Amino acid sequence: MKKVLIITSSLREQSNSTLLAQAFKEGAEEKGNEVEIISLRENRIAPCVGCGSCQVYGECFMKDKLNDILDKVIDADVLVFASPTYYYSVNGTLKNFIDRTYAQYLKIKNKDFYYIGSSSDTSKESIDGAVETVKGFLRCVENVNLKGIVYGLNLNDQGEARYS
User: Fold this and answer.
1) Residues 5/79, Cβ–Cβ less than 8 Å
2) CA 149 – CA 81 distance, rounded (Å)
3) pLDDT tens-digit profile of 78-116?
4) Integer distance in angstroms from the first to the last C-alpha of the chain?
5) β pairing state of 34-39 and 78-86
6) Cα four-point dihedral sign 61, 67, 73, 74
7) Cβ(8)–Cβ(69) under 8 Å?
8) Using CA of residue 103, residue 131, residue 84, residue 16, what is the dihedral sign?
């Protein structure tokens, strides 16, 4: 059994990327894994101010949910990011989270990683910019392997990715 942590970043309730993340969760649980979803919509974090104090004190000085979420990221065996695609990249909420991982990025290691992207476009290339952003993050952490990408395409309306 593995600990799977899914970080969703859409600010819309019942968003397509969140619905795809829920389906991923159910599939991982069916295989016997322990799965938790953390919504950045429900756990808003402030943007990084670039002060560097986290590198001195080992955690970010800002008192929001980041340090608690990072503890779970560090503890997970499998890490999953889910994001809508805006202008061919991850949304600002996920990018903000990625930037804030700087507080403990050296401890994020030895994980399998999956990315779930949703887009109104019909082409996989519409999500490729988001994948490149995620790959930039993965290049900065130790032994975290991109195992898969879920392309949620042609999803125009909120909740369209609903499954049965």
Assistant:
1) yes
2) 10
3) 999 999 999 999 999 999 999 999 989 999 999 999 999
4) 26
5) unpaired
6) positive
7) no
8) negative
The single-letter code of the amino acid at 156 is N
Structure tokens at 24: 């991923």
Going along the chain, which residue ranges are E strands? 3-8, 34-39, 78-86, 89-90, 109-118, 142-152
Query: What is the rounded distance in angstroms from the CA atom of residue 6 to the CA atom of residue 78?
Result: 8
Profile the chain (164 residues) by mean pLDDT over runs of 10 residues: 97 93 97 98 93 88 92 97 96 96 94 96 94 97 96 86 62
To the nearest 10 degrees (0 to 180), the angle between helices 125-140 and 92-100 is 10
Q: How far apart are CA 64 and CA 2, in angstroms?
A: 27
pTM for the whole thing?
0.94
Rounded to whole angstroms, the Cα distance separating 48 from 102 reads 9
| CA-to-CA separations, 164 to 22, 23, 120, 160, in angstroms, rounded | 12, 10, 20, 12
Residue at token pair 């001195």: 56
Cβ atoms within 10 A of the Cβ of 7, count? 25
* Type of residue at 143: N
